[in-house]
Amino acid sequence: MKKAIYPGSFDPITNGHLDLIERASRIFDHLIITILHNHRKNPLFSLEERIKMIEKAVSHLDNVEVQSYSGLLVDFAKEKDCHIIVRGLRAVTDFEYEIQMSQTNRLLAPDLDTVFVTTDMKYGYLSSSTVREVAYFQGDLAPFVPAFVADELKKKYSGTAASGTD
Ligand code: ADP
């Protein structure tokens, strides 16, 4: 059985992530979406909130599960006896960072390979940070995230920002 891990922060999950998950779920027999939580990062959504949102977003996919891990991805992969990491490439700007990570992982775990998947062009610009920025200024989130994720974002930012001149 070919299984793969798709790691990320997913803060929050976007339509770009989902497009990639759907593609990867067709390539592999089993996909483990892994929220890597990093204590140096200060996420908008808690780990539990992110897990819940991803589980809801992928509930139509039978061969996909969601887990979280605090530690090195290579150790998680070893634990799961998994040898494939899936990452997304949006544009050349992603490439430098992604190649560095995959080579580092290769040094740490020589039998671990990274497979890059590109999304539909329409998600090429999309990132969780852009989505958070749009939500902060109460912009339309419909093109970027599932409706229930948009609702969660609105709740997070209700009563905060307003646009205007300084
Ligand atoms: P990280 O903090 O590890 O970059 P993210 O949650 O931002 O985690 O992204 C996880 C993975 O999904 C990364 O490989 C990233 O390049 C990819 N990704 C994010 N958004 C998109 C998108 N719109 N199209 C393709 N890949 C994407």
Describe this structure in words.
It is built from six helices and five strands, in the order βαβαβαβαβαα. With 166 residues, the chain is of the alpha/beta class. The longest helix has 17 residues, at 92-108. Helices cover 42% and strands 19% of the residues. Adenosine-5'-diphosphate binds next to α1 and β4. Residues 8-10, 14, 16-17, 20, 87-88, 90, 94, 119, 123, 126-128 line the site of adenosine-5'-diphosphate.
Give the helix/strand layout.
Layout: E1 3-8, H1 15-27, E2 30-36, H2 47-57, E3 64-69, H3 73-80, E4 84-89, H4 92-108, E5 113-118, H5 128-136, H6 147-157
Parallel strand pairs: 1-2, 2-3, 4-5
The structure holds adenosine-5'-diphosphate (ADP).
Adenosine-5'-diphosphate is lined by residues 8-10, 14, 16-17, 20, 87-88, 90, 94, 119, 123, 126-128.
